[in-house]
Amino acid sequence: MDDSRLSEQQVEFYHRNGFVVTEPLFSAAELRALRVAAEELLAESGPVVPDNKRLQIEPEALEGQPVVRKIEPIIDLVPALAQLVYDPRMTRPPEQLFGESVILFEDKLNYKPPFVGSAYPLHQDYAYWSQYTDRLISVSFEPGRCYL
């Protein structure tokens, strides 16, 4: 499953609207393996305590236990996630949009466990990163879609 090139219409849509949603770029089996890697990351990221600098903890607990909202950075802990960052299905669409090679600016994994946690609505990160560059793109994916 590697049809990661954007169509001319998708490129035009991105330049007009600032985002584009693609068809699935990863198979169900690959997404299951990434889910396992995300669970491995939880185990490898250290104690789930508020002073762990790698973790962001949800304000509410689940069954008395703290819940991880976000881990960053991540690619130094789990090889499968490091490989994902450099997978052509992740890099090719942004390279196509920018017309040049891309490099990783930041890596993190947002968790959304059932029954607890705050929302992660779709949003633009430009306001946060504009002091560094005006050529930055966030890539997010879920089963069935990839957001650029």
Descriptive overview:
The chain is built from five helices and six strands; from the N terminus they run αβαββααβαββ. 33% of the residues lie in helices and 11% in strands. A hairpin with a 2-residue loop joins strand 5 and strand 6 (145-147). The mean pLDDT is 86. By secondary structure, the protein is α+β, with helices and mostly antiparallel strands. The two termini are 18 Å apart. Strands 1-6-5 form a three-stranded antiparallel beta sheet, with no helix packed on it. The protein has a single domain (8-116, 140-147), classed as Jelly Rolls (Sandwich), CATH 2.60.120.
Q: How would you summarize the topology of this molecule?
A:
Layout: H1 8-17, E1 21-22, H2 28-44, E2 55-57, E3 68-71, H3 79-85, H4 88-98, E4 109-110, H5 126-129, E5 140-142, E6 145-147
Antiparallel strand pairs: 1-6, 2-3, 3-4, 5-6
Short structural summary:
This protein has 148 residues and is α+β, with helices and mostly antiparallel strands.
Provide keyphrases for this structure:
148 residues, alpha+beta, Jelly Rolls, 3-stranded antiparallel beta sheet, 5 helices, 11% strand, globular
